[in-house]
Specification:
- This protein is of the alpha/beta class.
- The chain has two domains: about 10-30 and about 35-110 and about 310-565, Zn peptidases (Aminopeptidase, 3-Layer(aba) Sandwich), CATH 3.40.630; about 110-310, Glucose Oxidase, domain 1 (3-Layer(bba) Sandwich).
- Helices cover about 30% and strands about 25% of the residues.
- The chain has helices at about 40-50, 50-60, 75-90, 210-215, 230, 235-240, 265-275, 280-285, 355-375, 400-405, 445-455, 475-480, 500-510, 525-545, 560-565; strands at about 10-15, 20-25, 95, 105-115, 120-125, 130, 140, 150-155, 165, 170, 180-185, 220-225, 245-250, 260-265, 295-320, 330-335, 340, 350, 385-390, 415-420, 430-435, 455-460, 485, 490.
- It has a 15-stranded mixed β-sheet that branches.
- The longest helix is centred in the middle third of the chain and has 23 residues, at about 355-375.
- The chain starts with 9 loop residues before the first strand and ends with a helix.
């Protein structure tokens, strides 16, 4: 079934001199939506009206230079949050934030290293110190927020820096790292065995956030993550860009204790290994087979100067009510609206606009909210409440969604599913989808059948070593037991051969990901974004209508948290 263009009513709202569209009625629909069993025809009609041009309008606004990259706690952050809440209000959602507002306050503090006042030296037992250059050789952050940190501590090599009893793996075994600095390898031990660190798919143990958390738990005062591009799945430029501005932390986070949370280039770690008579690549290979942790003859001598500010950011939250139904089996849709802000000291373009990452996810979230709200207005409300959360501080370590996971709008047991959207490239009509992590849930058969109805091929994660499941906001909800995954495009697109989409993703990662060049362009094609929104609309409706609350597959790492929440503990 297709729809003709209908006239749209546009309300113009001006914030700080920037006109932004607030759509009150539907605009041009996208491609036909199949009739999925279990989703009422009236609801399908609203899904049909999900419009790629509305998604474009949201991306264009959010990626505008006047929002200055939407860094948490900035004016651009506030403009973005206000825009999102006004869109929710225009569509007729109910506020679902604190005290009946649109906003859930997220208490944060931000730390920014002052590069020209910060020094790093690797000091050998004998010989001259090796002075490192900020940005070129290393980046660092003092998680404590102290104005000045003086570090003079032994460096201990602890392989991948992982303590994973379920895999009988402990890189910290036999070494005392209290008051010391650990040197760790990015990623995790390589394997093709799905029973060992899930084979080629990266687990949370391979994420840089875990490395710092575990180092703090083990009593270290610093951690140096060794960057090697093939293991990290992104170049050093991404690390440097991501750490050029502020790093934010949740107030009261027990794992944010490191005075030196740092990355170092591979050749810097190579100097440490070479002094002991080893080749760094050989050491990395050996560390993937067994524990090779050991003391070194080096010390880190660092003087770290930081600027700190405390502030609140907000998750923007709205809800579409169900007719006469309680909160149990509520569905949650999420997308982060922050990006990296500005690097005012950088030459040239200083703004990290974040058009694809994650203006696209926000545009999809808004269209989903509008479609659900319009269905309810037309007399077909969802079977249970549906929540929409545009979350903050994702780029700072999933902080907004972490806070949301701790403080959900209804008890965790009453959230049956979280569907997240993050960084969907606006490059055309996808004929495949990536729903990595969905197979870990009891909902997966429904995902498979619905994808088939949509004519979408479910592709396995095309870049399993990148650990995408642990790099976006659904993971924060999963940690609290809530079944959660992201809906993304695969690499197959209409009108292109099988390699084209993968090439586009690789090109984006190399040239625009976490760089100022991730900007809105008029030639962007949002039809694939709209298709993924329509797919997610049906999935959310089916989850809400299911007879049973969704769960995790037996033995999954999040199963225990789900059982705990369901038991009311």
């Amino acid at each position: 079934m297709s729809f003709n263009r209908t006239q749209s009513v546009v309300l113009a709202v001006t914030i700080a001199g920037l006109s932004m569209p607030v759509f009150a009625q539907t605009a041009q629909g996208s491609s036909a939506v199949p009739q999925v069993v279990g989703v009422p025809a009236a609801a399908q009609q609203e899904a049909q009206r999900i419009d790629p041009e509305r998604i474009r309008a949201a991306v264009k606004y959010l990626a505008d230079n006047k929002l200055e990259g939407r860094g948490p706690g900035t004016e651009g952050d506030r403009l973005a949050a206000k825009y999102l809440s006004q869109q929710f209000a225009a569509y007729g959602l109910t506020p679902a934030g604190d005290n009946g507002s649109w906003y859930q306050k997220v208490p944060l503090y931000a730390v920014q290293t002052v590069p020209d006042k910060t020094t790093f030296q690797l000091v050998p037992k004998d010989g001259e110190p090796v002075t490192l250059k900020y940005g070129a050789d290393f980046v660092t952050n003092n998680q404590t927020g102290a104005a000045v940190a003086e570090v003079d501590a032994p460096i201990v090599f602890v392989g991948y820096g992982i303590h994973a009893p379920e895999y009988n793996w402990d890189d910290y075994k036999g070494v005392d790292v209290h008051g010391k600095v650990v040197l760790v390898i990015v990623n995790e031990p390589p394997s093709a065995d799905v029973g060992f660190f899930k084979g080629k798919a990266l687990t949370y143990y391979g994420r840089w956030t875990y490395k710092y958390e575990e180092a703090a738990r083990q009593g270290a005062i610093g951690a140096l993550i060794i960057h090697r591009e093939d293991l990290a799945s992104y170049p050093w430029q991404v690390v440097r860009s991501s750490w050029s501005g502020e790093k934010s932390y949740l107030v009261g986070d027990p794992n944010a204790k490191l005075e030196a949370a740092a990355w170092v280039q591979l050749d810097i770690a190579g100097k440490v290994a070479q002094a002991a008579g080893y080749d760094i690549d050989d050491v990395i290979e050996e560390a993937g087979k067994h524990n090779v942790s050991r003391e070194t003859t080096w010390r880190l001598k660092a003087h770290i100067v930081s600027e700190k500010r405390s502030f609140d950011s907000e998750n923007v939250m709205g809800m579409v009510a169900a007719k006469g139904a309680g909160p149990e089996q509520s569905v949650l849709y999420t997308a982060h609206f922050d990006h990296l802000g500005m690097d005012r000291k950088a030459p040239g373009d200083k703004i990290y606009n974040g058009a694809a990452d994650n203006g696209t996810g926000c545009g999809i979230l808004l269209e989903l909210a509008r479609a659900y709200a319009d269905a309810a207005k037309a007399g077909t409300p969802p079977p249970h409440r549906v929540y929409f959360a545009a979350v903050t501080a994702e780029e700072q370590g999933l902080l907004g969604s972490e806070y949301l996971g701790m403080h959900p709008p209804v008890p965790q047991k009453d959230l049956t599913l979280d569907l997240n959207y993050d960084m969907l490239l606006p490059i055309g009509v996808a004929t495949s989808t990536d729903v990595s992590g969905a197979e870990r849930t009891s909902f997966y058969p429904t995902v498979e059948s619905t994808a088939k109805d949509f004519g979408l091929t479910i592709q396995p994660d095309q870049f399993p070593g990148a650990g995408h499941y642990y790099r976006s906001d659904h993971f924060s909800l999963a940690r609290y037991g809530i079944p959660a995954f992201s809906i993304g495009q695969g690499t197959l697109f209409a009108g292109h051969d099988a390699d084209w989409g993968e090439t586009q993703m690789k090109q984006y990662t190399a040239e625009r990901y976490h760089q100022p060049s991730d900007e809105y362009k008029p030639e962007m094609d949002f039809r694939g974004n709209a298709r993924m929104a329509q797919f997610g609309f049906d999935l959310g409706w089916l989850a809400s209508a299911a007879k049973n609350t969704q769960g995790w597959q037996a033995g999954d790492e999040f199963e225990a948290a789900r059982k705990k929440s369901m038991s009311g503990q």
